[in-house]
Amino acid sequence: QVQLRESGGGSVQAGGSLRLSCAVSGYTYSMGWVRQAPGKEREGVACVDNNGDVNYADSVMGRFTIAQDRGTNVLTLELSNLTLADTGMYYCAAESDGADTEMVWDTCSFGYWGQGTQVTVSS
Questions:
Q1: Vertex 79, ends 99 and 25: CA angle to 5°?
Q2: Taking the CB of residue 26, how many other CB atoms lie within 10 A of it?
Q3: Ramachandran region of residue 73, left (φ > 0), alpha (ψ -120 to 50) or beta?
């Protein structure tokens, strides 16, 4: 059983930066961040697949950086040059045994989810 716990969200002005962290318990295959803005469907933001390859959504390429530390079991997402369009609930997500796949994005898949952390960008 995998458990994911996010931290680090908050409110920031456009152009600012935030750092999200996800504490992971259990072994995972792919891991990543998925966000959902009000009234919109959830979308993949960044992930590390089972081969260690990293994927980014086009909208965040060059602004966000995902990093996975299997030694400390922490997944981070550095967000920079934030825009209003980055506002939303950010979920840490992972694929592992014991749960059905709920979402497939790029080369990653996810069946476990954290509770989410809110990111709000204002002008």
A1: 30
A2: 14
A3: left
